[in-house]
Amino acid sequence: MKDNYFKYLFSLFVLLIVTWIISCSGRSGKVPAENDTQGNKTEDEPVVSLITMTAPAENSEFKLGEEVKVILARDNRGEPPDSILIFYDGRAVASLGPGVLEHLITPSLINRTGRKSIKVSAYRNGKVRTTIARFIVIMSDVIPARNGYRVIHTYPHERDAFTQGLFYDNGTLYEGTGQETGSSLREVELETGRVIRQLNLDPSLFGEGITLYNDRIYQVTWTSRVGFVYDKATFRQIYKIYYQSQGWGLTTLKDQIVMSDGSNVLYFLEPEMFTVISRLEVYDNEKKADQLNELEYINGEIWANIWMSDLIARIDPESGKVLAYIDLKGLMKDRDTDVLNGIAYDKEGNRIFVTGKNWPKLFEIKLTE
Fold it and tell me: How confident is the model at residue 335 (pLDDT cuts 50, 70, 90)?
């Protein structure tokens, strides 16, 4: 009797052990197909490519105002898709039904220059089975005008000022200078070039662009990814700001601050937290407008010094296209000076001021055709 009882206990123990081993192995009696946890592949429904994209080609170039034709083709290795979604620049622009393999992205949707994405997702049985993505480049639809200049007045400018940022407010110039151990924020008397006030940055920082927003001066640095907000009346630092790119030029456009980083990209930032709201890639009709530096907002346009050149680009802030280039060649003939950099605008007097790094002069100019 006891033998039978112990045999029963032993059998029960073995059964429990086997059950525990099976449960810990994660096996339920059926081995799942590979990738089944992703909902993309099962033993009954293997993944295949439903479509291919034949147009546009990768990095195809278009102009603002042109339509972009998306042409797809069925991949005959599988069933046709139930539906297809098309995305342009991250936004859904079309939903295609069964058998439809072409779509025109209209010019009304192609309203900004830059490198833009086109993504196509093909569905079968309610699930995405194929996704294709590629990029196209949108350029300006206008040939930029070419402006010259006429000097209206010449003012003295401090030779030690490696000018990185410049703006005019209420009769006074404000200037940000660069170079390690030599970066500063300055208040400057326009008529004499005399420095009224100067706040020096930490020697480890390379100062860059400045701008004014609500009686606060914003100043960025080159590669440290930190900037400063000052009280305009006292130059007292209120707080620091942080950003993920290099800091080059700054200007103010309505309730946003615009920053350049030495590329063809302009960043539109919320002033309080300095977070990026949007970005704009700048192109003319042939190429990207690269190395954008010091910025100024003038009569609905963003003007940008192009580093290592005598050019200023006049940019449409809505579309990103270059409307015109201002050629300031010959403005400063002193061979001991650095490049053109620094644009300031007197809105009330409709006066434009320009200077350069370590230039002994600042110029008031008028544009010529």
Answer: low
